Amino acid sequence: MKPSLELLALGVGVCMTVGTIGAASANPVPTQDEPESSTSSISSKPPAPVAPPLTLGANHDRDGDPTPPFAIALTPRTVAQTPPVAKPTPAKPTSKTAQGTPSPRPSAPLPTTGSPPSPSTPAPSNPTPQPPSGSTPAPQTPGTGGANQIVPTPPGLDPAANRLQFPTRPGEVQVRNVQPITLQQALELAERNNRDLEVSRLQVEQSRAAIRQARAANFPTLALTANLSRSGNVFISQTPSFSQQLAGIDPNSTSTAFNTGVQLNYSLFTSGLIQAQIRATERQSRSLELQLEETREQVRLTVSTNYYNLQNADAQVAINEAAVRNAEANLRDSRAQETAGLGTRFDTLRAEVNLANAQQLLRNAQATQEVSRRQLAQVLSISETATLTTADPVQPAGSWTIPLEDSIVLAYKNRSELEQQLVQREVSQAQIQAARAENGVTLNLVGNYNFQRSGTTNTSTNNADSYNLALQARWNLFDGGATNAVISQRERDREIAEARFAQNRNLIRFQVEQAFSNLQANLANINTTQQSVAQAEEALRLAILRFQAGVGTQTDRISAEAALTQAQGNRVSAIINYNLALAQLRRAVSNLSP
Q1: Are 183 and 305 in contact (CB under 8 A)?
Q2: Can you give the residue ranges of every domain in the chain?
Q3: Average per-residue pLDDT in the chain?
């Protein structure tokens, strides 16, 4: 009779549970933890002007089951967690069921409000450009630190001052400091420590020294020379000649001579050669400055991309941890039902396989997380003993209010790649002028002053001095066509710069349009995935209740858990992809004020 009573109690519990669920679905009653909301009131509520922040956290419901680590908080710029929602209370059976525990909540909180407000970004259709009011409006995006503003960074992250130092012991590369940083701090560290930026800065300094070298040709050069010599016979003596005898000169004596002089050279006229070389060097220096600007913008994009990838990796780890906890709870329920005779060994095996798959996905996510951490650390060039984690919550990083057409025009104005090709064209033109001046007339002023002191062992010391002042002119009449060949090469360089200008212009427009389209698509995906997460949470809650009541299958529960995990991952991916598209759009336009 005891099994019959338990089955009767189970049937009564199922009926009352289903009735309670139906009544709750038809007439939802707000609880203390859940504010009143309805579909009609949600649809009529105007959207907020800011993006809803997506925060990371972990809660536990009333039964101790963990809730998923992601909760939508509708308060802007705050890290909040959605309060747990009251569970539907099924009718208590007259006797204990095989499970013997209250029906747990799904491992994800139910939405407490309607669909979250969408960020103030452009609609999927291209917005109408605003009338210009004297200047192009700045995008409503947060500051990015780095070269634009100074952000304090955590201590202990800067690398060693000696660039040539490398560790030789394992303890010197052991990670002992796990430091959370914000995106602003990461950008500031990259501005200070990134090696690509350091090389670009050194190249700019090198080019400025080259300018000083080229300008030095406008000044005269003054050189001091000196010569000291001593000569004489070693083994063989010479017989003096008749003239030497008359002059009293001994050819076997030792002589000493000292010569010193000053030489002055000054180019009076070079047919514009020096001016053309200076102009070419200055434009090359400007090209390297623009290259530094391009490198800085690209490093900022790389840092932002790696930071968002690390955020995504952290989020995927948290999602898979919640999936493992769901699979463990499912396995406990399956074993309990198998022990009570209400389940089968097949259901238990399926739950074990589901748990093993979830654990494998978690390990893969943790490996990706570690790789993302080291990738960010490599770009920031931090200390060997430190690694990084993200401190910013996973939330939309801002909005873009500039229309597409204005964004393209602004990119044409701001991108250093276009100006760099124009500067390279000017370099080629200056080199052409310098090559033509090589065949022109040059006029140089040369002055010399010499002083000589000499003497032998048999004669007294003699002193003498002299000077020389001359004008030297030079004109190349024929060089075998070498100058014309050089000019032809530089003309081709000029045409190449023009072709690359057109190529970069087309590429810049494509980059702006691509990032703009991705931004709009991911904005729509954020709104869609937030709804799908709420639906997946409710589906999992019902699947758990049906499975524990004996009217649902384990396949339904496993499918609902997988759907919830996928929905949470899609929501995080949509936000991360939105932020990536925003960073790419800022890079495509470049040089935006914070």
Answers
A1: no
A2: 50-87+98-126+178-215+270-438+480-594
A3: 76
| Cβ neighbours around 510 below 10 Å, total | 12
Residue 33's Cβ-count burial label (10 Å; 0-12, 13-18, 19+) is middle
Q: What does each C-alpha distance from 72 to 221, 308, 325, 440 come to in angstroms? A: 74, 18, 21, 75
- pLDDT, tens digit (0-9, with 9 covering 90-100), for 231-288: 777 666 667 776 766 766 666 677 788 899 999 999 999 999 999 999 999 999 999 9
Cα(148)–Cα(530) distance, integer angstroms: 34
- At residue 260, the 3 state secondary structure works out as strand
From CA 492, how far away is CA 425, in angstroms rounded? Answer: 10
Q: Running DSSP on this structure, what letter comes out for residue 140?
A: -
User: Taken in order 321, 326, 330, 332, is the CA torsion positive or negative?
Assistant: positive
CA 217 vs CA 213, 220, 273, 440, 486: distances in Å: 7, 7, 10, 17, 22
Q: Helix (H, G, I), strand (E, B), or coil: what is residue 45?
A: coil
**Residues 2, 465: Cα–Cα separation, whole Å:** 134
Structural contact between residues 31 and 87, judged by C-beta atoms closer than 8 angstroms: no
**C-beta separation of 316 from 368 below 8 A:** yes
Alpha-carbon gap, residue 471 to 475, rounded angstroms: 14
Residue 104: pLDDT band (50, 70, 90) is very low
Cβ atoms < 10 Å from Cβ of 111: 22
Q: How far is CA 257 from CA 132, 248, 310, 455, in A?
A: 83, 19, 78, 7
Higher pLDDT, 550 or 407: 407
The neighbour count for residue 176, using CB atoms within 10 Å, is 11
Supply 527's token pair: 């709104």
Task: Find residue 230's DSSP bridge partners.
Answer: 256
pLDDT given for residue 143 in this prediction: 40
Number of Cβ within a 10 Å radius of residue 244: 13
pLDDT of residue 201: 96
Among the listed residues 537, 557, 568, 565, the one whose alpha carbon sits nearest the alpha carbon of residue 85 = 537
pLDDT class for 380, splitting at 50, 70, 90? very high
d(C-alpha 541, C-alpha 252), whole Å:
119
Instruction: Check: CB of residue 369 under 8 Å from CB of residue 313.
Output: yes
Q: How far is CA 545 from CA 103, 125, 445, in A?
A: 6, 43, 102
In this predicted structure, what is the pLDDT of residue 52?
A: 42
Chain-centroid distance of CA 60 in Å reads 36
Give the pLDDT confidence of 426-437 residue by residue, as tens digits. 999 999 999 999
For the domain bounded by 50-87+98-126+178-215+270-438+480-594, which CATH number is listed? Answer: 1.20.1600.10
Q: Using CA atoms in the order 192, 193, 198, 200, what is the torsion angle rounded to 10 degrees? A: -70
pLDDT at 75 over 90: no
Cα(179)–Cα(171) distance, integer angstroms: 18
CA dist., res. 80 & res. 73, Å (int): 6
- 384's tokens: 């060997």
Reference 96, options 352, 354, 336, 414; nearest CA is 336
Q: How many CA atoms lie within 13 A of 416 on its CB side?
A: 17
Q: Are 290 and 200 in contact (CB under 8 A)?
A: no
Decide if pLDDT at 132 tops 70: no
